[in-house]
Amino acid sequence: MPFVRIIVNPRAGRGRSLRVLDKVKGTLSQAGWQYETALTQAPGHAVELARESAAAGLPLVAAIGGDGTINEVIQGISGTSTALAIIPGGTGNDHARSLGIPLAPARAAELLWRGKIIDMDVGLERDRLFGCLVSIGFPVDVIDHTNRKKQLLKGSLAILSSVWQTLRHLKYHHVTITFDDDRSISAATCGIFVLNTPSAGGGLRFSPAADITDGLLDVVVIGEISVWDLVFTLPQVYTGSGRHLRHPAVGFYRCRKIRIDSDDPLPKMFDGEIIGRTPVEASLRPRGLRVVAPVSHPAEGQPVSVGLELAAAKMSLTAALPGL
Description:
By secondary structure, the chain is α+β, with helices and mostly antiparallel strands.
């Protein structure tokens, strides 16, 4: 009988994750799956739970929570044979959106037997991994506002509400950006997005063509722009048309490695969590994470059942022959 360990952040989505867990349990039981749940107790606990799962040889873990929870699980299993199944239960859910994973809990859970396992790139900023992005400037202010304020709105609307409220205090920062160690630019910017995935900020598609398997980071730099111009431009980002990238105040770059230095230390945001200050030093771990995706995802992959069997066999061989 198939088995999955479910790591749950009970505080994600202001308690939504626990309601999601109840629905997922019913879906798994009906499909004949066995499961074990592990609730996180504090920030960083999901990293420990994920690392323990990989060390125990589990071929699959599921994570229910927001992008911060998914980020922690990635820290624990990246580079191992353990695959990650993402079940959205937070506010932005951009890992799920970028992979095409349904936001409905039952449909997301069904990917455990209807989906496929692909190998996706993972971002690395110094000693911290990220699945979606690392950013500085007003995106950090938006997330800080969303996390601190009690709002009636939920999900993407909560983030959009924070955008409107933080843009009133838009600030510019002088930065030097170095791409792949050989090309530098200086800019006055209100926000920089270093992206691995198309989606960020609850469905804002800053780089609609971002490919999680191409070994490249997509970088969006927003230069000097009036508040009203930015207000009218941001809705274009939701459409996924890429029209915003043609705006004269928006710079778009692709690279394998990037460094961002700022005149003043600026806070950094990783997948919805604010941690550390500039400089930013980011690169990629190509194909560093095994993740469950819909069969419609363009990346090559194996049916989940096949992928789990191969992972289990590899772990058994490694245990039998420690020198491998």
